[in-house]
Design brief:
The chain is an all-alpha fold. It has ten helices and no strands. The N and C termini lie far apart (52 Å).
Length: 202
C-alpha cells in the first residue's frame, strides 16, 4: 500500500475518532438534555462546563483531548520507515481529529471549536511545546476567567514559541495554519469579546 493511501486511511480514522460528539453524548447520558439547546449551543468542553457542571465538563475535555491524542501517538508507527518523522506525520494525521471534532458528521457537521482536540494533537507530537502553551492558557485564564481569550492567547504563544525554538519551517507553517483555523472557529467568541459580552467561568 502506498504512503498516500496509508495517510488517507489514517486521516479518516483520526477524523472518525475526533468526530465523537462527547459533550452531546454526556448531556444525554448524565443530564438527559441536548447541550445544543443550552448556553452557547456549542458541543465543546467549555459549554459542557457551563451547562453540565465542572466534573462532567472536565470529563468531556479529557475525552476530547484523548480522541485526538491517540492517533498522533499510535498511527505514525504503521507508516513506512523514513517516510516522515513520527512528529510531523502525527501532526498531519492529527488534523483529521481536529476536523472531525469541528465538523462532526454525527451532528450535521456542527461540532466543537477545536481547542481540546488541538491540545491532544500538540501534546502527542510536541509534549514540551504543549506545556508552554498550557502554561500560557492557565496564566491568561487566571487573570481573565474567559476561556476563549485564554485559548486565543495560547494559540499566539504556540506560534511564537515554535519560532523561538527554531522548529522546522514545515512545522511552523502547520501551527500557523491550525492557529488561523481555530481563530476562525472562534469568530463568534471574538465578536462577543469586542462587544464585551463574552461570559466568564468562575
Amino acid at each position: 500500500m502506498t504512503l498516500i493511501c496509508l495517510f488517507i486511511i489514517f486521516w479518516l480514522l483520526a477524523f472518525l475518532s475526533g468526530a465523537l460528539p462527547t459533550a452531546y453524548l454526556a448531556g444525554h447520558f448524565f443530564k438527559g438534555t441536548d447541550i445544543r439547546l443550552h448556553g452557547s449551543g456549542n458541543v465543546g468542553a467549555t459549554n459542557a462546563f457551563r451547562v453540565l457542571g465542572k466534573r462532567i465538563g472536565a470529563l468531556v475535555f479529557l475525552i476530547d483531548f484523548l480522541k485526538s491524542w491517540w492517533p498522533v501517538i499510535f498511527l505514525p508507527c504503521w507508516l513506512p520507515p523514513n517516510s516522515l518523522s513520527a512528529r510531523e506525520a502525527g501532526l498531519w494525521i492529527g488534523t483529521g481529529a481536529i476536523a472531525g471534532h469541528v465538523f462532526t458528521p454525527f451532528l450535521g457537521f456542527k461540532g466543537g471549536k477545536g481547542i481540546a482536540a488541538g491540545a491532544g494533537v500538540l501534546c502527542g507530537a510536541f509534549p514540551l511545546l504543549f506545556l508552554v502553551v498550557l502554561t500560557t492558557w492557565l496564566l491568561v485564564f487566571s487573570f481573565t476567567r474567559i476561556v476563549s481569550i485564554s485559548s486565543l492567547a495560547a494559540l499566539a504563544g504556540l506560534v511564537i514559541a515554535s519560532f523561538l525554538l527554531g522548529l522546522k519551517a514545515s512545522v511552523i507553517a502547520f501551527f500557523c495554519l491550525v492557529a488561523f483555523f481555530i481563530v476562525w472557529t472562534h469568530r463568534s467568541n471574538i465578536a462577543r469579546l469586542i462587544q464585551g459580552k463574552e461570559k466568564k467561568i468562575c
